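Long-time lurker, finally posting.

We've been working with Core-binding (CB) domain-containing protein (Caldanaerobacter subterraneus) and I want a structural starting point before designing mutants. I don't trust myself to interpret raw outputs, so I'm hoping someone here can both generate the structure tokens and explain anything notable. Sequence follows.
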Amino acid sequence: MSKIRNISSITAKTVIDMKALLEEFLLVKEADRLSPRTLKDYRYHIEKFIEFLGLNYPTYQQIRIALLKYLSASSSFSVNSF
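Top reply, 14 upvotes:
Generated this for you. Predicted structure of Core-binding (CB) domain-containing protein:
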């Protein structure tokens, strides 16, 4: 398992392994005792964002820009996807 990174060490050019980060995030949320349905929903929506991003090893800056576009776009990945 990868070491959890201190958020203050992330710069605009830091490369991030999105799939590994997703698994780490879900593991933390499972330890927080979130329901299986919530974990499934987190996985679904985060995987859709990774698909939208189109990169598994983006920089922090690329994630930031893509997230702004993703959240501002009217798409099938929105809250209305339930």
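Before you design anything, note these points.
The longest helix spans residues 36-53.
The chain has one domain: 15-72.
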